[in-house]
Design goal:
Family: Belongs to the cytochrome P450 family.
CATH architecture: Orthogonal Bundle
Keywords: Heme, Iron, Membrane, Metal-binding, Monooxygenase, Oxidoreductase, Transmembrane, Transmembrane helix
Number of helices: 6
Main location: membrane
CATH class: Mainly Alpha
CATH topology: Cytochrome p450
Largest sheet: 2 strands, antiparallel
Helix content: 25-40%
Protein name: Tabersonine 16-hydroxylase 2-like
Oligomer: single chain
Order of helices and strands: HHHHEEEEHHEEEE
Number of strands: 8
Structural class: alpha+beta
Membrane topology: Single-pass membrane protein
Number of domains: 1
Length: 212
């Protein structure tokens, strides 16, 4: 799996790995996503960009993936503009602040069942990647949101940077294949341990068997 997507850049391949890993671990989510994709594209016989905007559940899967597995767990440092107090702590001016996006996305004060992979929480939700909702900042927040947001989803196999590319790739996999874990491995036994670093990758390569 890692070899297929490595050419698209580390953040892109990481996002793809986590999304597929979470779907493999949650077969009912996979079935719902497959039903959505196949219902919309069945008459065309293939997935293209024309109806990606109709894939509401798949879009929610990507949002939920980035909530639990942001491309960079610690955002770029920011300089505090003026002295302030946050949660009882005095923050001096000019000090560098590091924001833990990984912890924010799992904070039970803002998320029901914060550790659970539940894409439905984003259905009919206005929360998006733009950084205006501070409980969800996988790329940063406010006016200085990460300028590389669109390039996160680059996969070299498609040859063009676009936020739609990751949706297109997942939709094609869901449309054309069923997925099976190797051997007798059960979904609940699937290891989603994290390998800590500048980006958080799965500790073990994600392997699955595609069935046409």
């Amino acid at each position: 799996m890692k070899d297929i997507f490595s050419a698209g850049g580390e953040t892109s391949s990481t996002a793809m790995e986590w999304a597929i890993g979470e779907m493999i671990k949650n077969p009912e989510i996979t079935k719902r996503a497959q039903h959505e994709v196949r219902s919309i594209y069945n008459d065309k016989g293939n997935v293209d960009e024309s109806r990606l905007h109709e894939l509401k559940y798949l879009h929610a899967i990507i949002k939920e993936t980035l909530r639990l597995h942001p491309s960079a767990p610690l955002l770029l440092t920011r300089e505090c503009g003026q002295q302030c107090k946050i949660n009882g702590y005095d923050i001096p001016a000019k000090v560098d602040i590091i924001v833990n996006a990984w912890a924010i996305g799992r904070d039970p004060k803002y998320w029901i069942e914060a550790e659970k992979f539940n894409p439905s929480r984003f259905l009919d939700s206005e929360i998006d990647y733009k950084g205006n909702n501070f409980e969800y900042i996988p790329f940063g927040a406010g006016r200085r949101i990460c300028p590389g947001i669109s390039t996160l989803f680059v996969l070299a196999v498609f040859g063009e940077p676009s936020q739609e590319v990751i949706e297109l790739a997942l939709a094609q996999l869901l449309f054309h294949f069923d997925w099976k874990l190797p051997g007798e491995l059960k979904p609940q036994e699937f290891d989603m341990a994290e390998n800590l670093g500048w980006t958080i990758r799965p500790k073990n390569d994600i392997q699955f068997i595609p069935i046409p």
